[in-house]
C-alpha cells in the first residue's frame, strides 16, 4: 500500500462566512458524514503561503526573529509570506519574500516540501523552497513596517537549528519542517534530487 495523501471531498449542503478579515476569513460548512449524518465544520480560509530556507555556502541558514502576537512570542523563522494574488507563481512569491525580508537573491531554487499547516482548522497550504547560491540583492532595501520593522536577521548553522528544534527551543512550523526536511534530504539522495522550483502544486495551482 502506497502511503500517499489523496484528494477527497465530502458533500457540503450549506456554507456561510461569518467573518471576513483583511487577508483571511472564517467559513462554516455543513458536511455530510459517511453514515449520512450532518455536522458543521468551522475553518479559516487562507490564500496560501511560501517560505524560503536560504542556505549559504558555509552551511548556514538565513533566519529572522519576529514578534508574533497570537502566540505572544518572538520567534526565529525563515523568510515567508502570503500568496497575495490568486494563481500567483509560488517561486516568484518566494523570490519576492527573500528580497523584501532579507535583501538577498538566490540563483539555485528547489522545492523542499509542501505542507498543510493546520488541516483540522485551516486550509492554508505552504510551499517551502530551498534557495542556494546566495548574494546580496541590488538596489535599495525594501521598506518594512509593523512587526517586520523590528525584525532581526542572522545566519545560523543548520545543525544548530536542528538542535534547537529537537530541544523545544524553536517552534515556527516552516522553520521546523524546513530544517528537518533539508537534513533528511542531505542524508538521503541529496538536495539535487529535490523537485524543481516550478513543480506542480495541486493545493495552489499556478501558471508558470
From TrEMBL:
InterPro entries: NUDIX_hydrolase-like_dom_sf, NUDIX_hydrolase_dom
GO biological process, one term: ribose phosphate metabolic process
Top-level taxonomic group: Bacteria
A Gene Ontology molecular function term of the record: hydrolase activity
Database matches in Pfam families: NUDIX (PF00293)
A GO CC term attached to the entry: cytosol
Keywords from the named record: Hydrolase
Domain Nudix hydrolase: 44-178
The protein's name in its UniProt record: ADP-ribose pyrophosphatase
Organism name: Streptomyces natalensis ATCC 27448
Amino acid at each position: 500500500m502506497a502511503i500517499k495523501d489523496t484528494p477527497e471531498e465530502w458533500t457540503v449542503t450549506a456554507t456561510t462566512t461569518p467573518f471576513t478579515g483583511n487577508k483571511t476569513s472564517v467559513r462554516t460548512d455543513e458536511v455530510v458524514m459517511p453514515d449520512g449524518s450532518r455536522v458543521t465544520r468551522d475553518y479559516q480560509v487562507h490564500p496560501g503561503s511560501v517560505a524560503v530556507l536560504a542556505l549559504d555556502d558555509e552551511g548556514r541558514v538565513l533566519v529572522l526573529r519576529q514578534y508574533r502576537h497570537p502566540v505572544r512570542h518572538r520567534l526565529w523563522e525563515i523568510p515567508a509570506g502570503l500568496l497575495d494574488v490568486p494563481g500567483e507563481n509560488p517561486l516568484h512569491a518566494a523570490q519576492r519574500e527573500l528580497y523584501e525580508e532579507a535583501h538577498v537573491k538566490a540563483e539555485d531554487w528547489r522545492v523542499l516540501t509542501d505542507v498543510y499547516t493546520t488541516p483540522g482548522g485551516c486550509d492554508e497550504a505552504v510551499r517551502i523552497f530551498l534557495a542556494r547560491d546566495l548574494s546580496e540583492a541590488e538596489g535599495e532595501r525594501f521598506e518594512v513596517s509593523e512587526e517586520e520593522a523590528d525584525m532581526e536577521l542572522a545566519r545560523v548553522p543548520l545543525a544548530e537549528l536542528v538542535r534547537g528544534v529537537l530541544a523545544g527551543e524553536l517552534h515556527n512550523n516552516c522553520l521546523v519542517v524546513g530544517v528537518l526536511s533539508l537534513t533528511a534530504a542531505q542524508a538521503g539522495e541529496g538536495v539535487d534530487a529535490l523537485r524543481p522550483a516550478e513543480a506542480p502544486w495541486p493545493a495552489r495551482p499556478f501558471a508558470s
